[in-house]
Amino acid sequence: MNDRRPLHRDRSRATSFGSAAARYDRFRPRYPAALIDDLVPRTGIRVLDVGAGTGIATAQLRAAGADVLAVEPDPQMAEIAAGKGLAVEVATFADWDPCGRTFDLVVFAQSFHWVDPKRALRKVGAVLARSGRLALLWNRIVAVRPGPDELAGVYASVGAEPQRPSVLVEGEDLEPLLAAAGFTSERRHYTEHPHYGGAEWVEMVSTYSAVLGLPAADQDVLRSRLAATIGDAGVQATNDALTVLCTLTR
Fold this sequence. Notes:
Layout: H1 11-14, H2 21-27, H3 33-39, E1 46-50, H4 56-63, E2 67-72, H5 75-83, E3 87-90, E4 103-109, H6 117-127, E5 128-138, E6 141-145, H7 148-156, H8 167-170, H9 174-180, E7 183-192, E8 195-196, H10 198-205, H11 209-212, H12 216-230, E9 235-248
Parallel strand pairs: 1-2, 1-4, 2-3, 4-5
Antiparallel strand pairs: 5-9, 6-9, 7-9, 8-9
Protein name: Class I SAM-dependent methyltransferase
GO molecular function: methyltransferase activity
Organism: Mycolicibacterium frederiksbergense
């Protein structure tokens, strides 16, 4: 798999998560508590969680005291979020109608790379309350032991690429994009060092779009080979969780 199109244009990958919704909710990591606390400085702030998936960030923000609305295009993902008692509206962000509502905080948790960024930023500007903020979140988990090169060889054996952080946060593309839309921004890092059991790691990485897009037989082979490579020791990892916190200059 060597498709370098922007991810939001690869609709087969963007719409692949519903098939693994239950596993996604169970095995995808939660965001560091300090990251969530920094986004909710007081109870009752109005938050819009865009591309909320199964409501992982939504639930954490609500637990911190926010009043959160989730918008999620995949009905299977949204059903799990709704089952947690979260407020969910099923729509793409492009098609979603805010009906005059505004928000103190708009969050894209692991989802900004799935929208057309210029269109999305214009819409964010329209729904932000005065002094409102935009937060782009990513958990960025990298294996330390076994090393990433060793695991990359397993992916290559089935013609797949290992999950990598979005290019929107790795190059110089993001900040100029935000500035052109009228946002100032800062990056905040929250580092964790989690350990995963072998089966837990395999379940987690098999919920990423690069794996879900493989034929079912190749997914099975990849899972088996990853488990064999990891063995009983599991995976020692680093999560360099990132918030890009943005303020609109009006």
